[in-house]
Amino acid sequence: MSEIPQGYHTVTPSLTVRDGVAALDFYAKAFGAVEVFRMPEPTGKIMHAEFNIGDSRIMLSDEYPHHGALAPAVGEGCSFMLYVTDIDAAFEQAIAAGATVVQAPTDMFWGDRSGKVNDPFGYRWTLASHVRDVSPEEMDEAAKTWAEQNQA
Q1: Which pLDDT tens digit goes with each residue over 2-32?
Q2: What is the SS3 assignment for 121?
Q3: N or C terminus: which one in the chain shows less Cβ crowding within 10 Å?
């Protein structure tokens, strides 16, 4: 028997949102999330839910301010990196589901094509497809160029 239950990894994020039912619906539409478990209160508020995106499990609950569980404002929560087969199609799917554009899909110097969106529940998602392998030397040079071009 393992100390990690089947279906989980060593680290499992847990999101706090203002409308758990709507969040579960959004994640299904935007990212193809598959709900695994839902524990609602009699009022419908989500005490605990779990869903998978690909092979990754994420937990979710509604806010419980009296327990210190508060949802972030849009764009102020943590950020997730989600690798997908087709970044452009996945990006459009997320926007159609209600995400807002932070950065349109762009070919990046480290070999990914990626774009960023904010979901309506406070969290940022970077969607990416790995499109080419980059040597450490090439990445180092490209990072220096990028830093020079993006200094504030």
Answers
A1: 898 888 889 999 999 999 999 999 999 999 9
A2: coil
A3: C
